Amino acid sequence: MLFKHIQLKPLIIATAFLMLVQCAGTPKKQVSKADAGNGSGITLDINDLGEGTEIMTAGQELMENALGMVELTNGDQRNDSVLVIAVHGYESKGYEWITGLKNFADYYGSLFFYRYDWEVCPDQVAGDLAAHVIALSQKGSYDKILLFGHSYGGVVLTFAASELGALSADLHVIAAPLSGFPSLMDACKSMSYDAGDKLKYPHWKKSIRVIQHKTVHAQDGAFRELAADPQEIDLPFYMIKHLPPTMDGHRLGHNWSVTWVLDQHIGKPHR
Known about the structure:
This protein is of the alpha/beta class.
């Protein structure tokens, strides 16, 4: 998760990698469009996922689904005019999504969770994701498309922005190391870096609105040991939102940023 040429002590590097739940490992595989349909048609009633002391088990159940789109239903509630897709991070345990997605299910009927192979390079996963989004958008009459990507999933989402063509969509990128992790992604030869050693992304159309949600560098357990904040990057964001350091009296860190952003979106207050 380090920028190229940044020199940090080995102990700090090791600690940072252990703390980054969503972004670790070395993506190597290539993904094919055939893989995109592996999880199509899977449905999961979100009311079956527990919260509180059961939230870790609920997260595991969410992540055990096959690759592809998992539709999250809410009893007999039918799909509506808004398509919502959530994209997890690297080695996600799933629990960080449970509270926010259950709250979303009370507002949106077309709710999906995108499962992907995190050993695949993010630009390759992006093509797979975009194919799913376009296919879903063509199946329904949606007035709005919302995508939420966390951590490594936020990197995937930002690469996918350019592949959505003229589709009109809001992409919410949460606590994502958009500037890149060269030590993590060196095997991803299709990706390149600019003169400042930050990841380069293809341009996206104006109909795609990318909103970046940034955690406080010093409060994010995944980033705070790094000399530079990997969320810092110059991209044509529609908006940049800075998350507070705490939520309901507790530290607002890397994973709980998902709950904050999703709840803020539907107007559910947190302190």
